[in-house]
User: What shape does this take?
Amino acid sequence: QLQLVESGGGLVQPGGSLRLSCAASGFAFNYFPIGWFRQAPGKEREGVSCISDSGGRTNYADSVKGRFTISRDNVKKSVYLQMNSLKPEDTAIYYCARAKVFGSCVSPPDPRHYDYWGQGTQVTVSS
Assistant: This one.
């Protein structure tokens, strides 16, 4: 059974850090790019970052460049999102997703190009 499970969300003060994890199972993980997305209340889901199957290529939305870092461990079948210098506008539910077959990470991820999604983890940035 294909699964993606996010963890690591929580409440953090502005300027703080969180590390999200995405644990994958049920598919050949090392063959697929993985993306991170977020959705705030009343807003559309937006791409945050993606990483290629090998981990050699990454992309970020302009709003998180220089603050967020994506990485992956193909042995552990996991992808991580290190989030630093968090701002209140980063508050959202964060999702990881698997790219469609033959998909790639050549730009900040577009949700339409991803087919399997986790259940999400809440990130709240507030004082």
